[in-house]
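Retro notes, item 3 of 5
We never archived the inputs for the S-adenosylmethionine complex last cycle. Fixing that now. Sequence and ligand:
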Amino acid sequence: MEDSQSTTENLLQMYAKQDKINMANYWLLYLLSAFRTAPKSARILDCGCALGVFIAFLKRRGFTHVEGFDASPEMVEAGRTITGCDIRIADILDLDKHYAQASFDIVSVSNILHHVTDINSWGVIFDGIRRVLSPGGLLVIREPKRTPIYRTLEWLSKHPSFYFGPLTFRLQSIIEERAYLDYFFPHWYGAHAELLKAHGFEIISEGTSMGEQVLSCRRS
Ligand SMILES: C[S@@+](CC[C@H](N)C(=O)[O-])C[C@H]1O[C@@H](n2cnc3c(N)ncnc32)[C@H](O)[C@@H]1O
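Structure as it came back at the time:
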């Protein structure tokens, strides 16, 4: 399911800037996850890739087989122009329709689970990912976490005087995604390890970046 028009518009403007905070976050995702040690020939799928900025980042690091999809046609269209990545339009709940079994070695789910406000749908997503991953393949998940930095941003988001420069779109996205995040935090934290295990994934590393949790999981 697609996000609302205003959520998409805000994210589109934020990612189009490809600013230093955005790049620092991708570096942290890369360094804290299984990407750091993965072979450059690994077949990678980036789910909900927006404009494809992380796809372009991985290609610059030397990865040769990286593709992605997003549910928003507007995001995909802009991505083709801005990053030049060939991105498909697809819904993460329908992976079966778009990708063959065991066609990837690594699947990345970055800041998208919190857009799907239903714990049962997360199970559907993990089953779909399990199917498109090769045996022993890796799932990398990055999602918001209430770290001290994140809590500070939450506080700043309630005060319009802090809406300037690179903070603007980030604070706006906390407001835009309020309903998603109110569902996500209590349902994900505490339940995620069991949920992943129930759907055939073992967590092999866990890290915390500025305001996010980074998990690497192996498909059993
Ligand atoms: C916060 S952005 C994350 C972008 C990128 N993955 C990152 O971490 O920088 C969330 C993206 O997920 C996409 N999205 C939301 N629901 C989706 C769904 N059901 N299937 C595929 N993409 C979805 C949105 O269009 C948006 O581009």
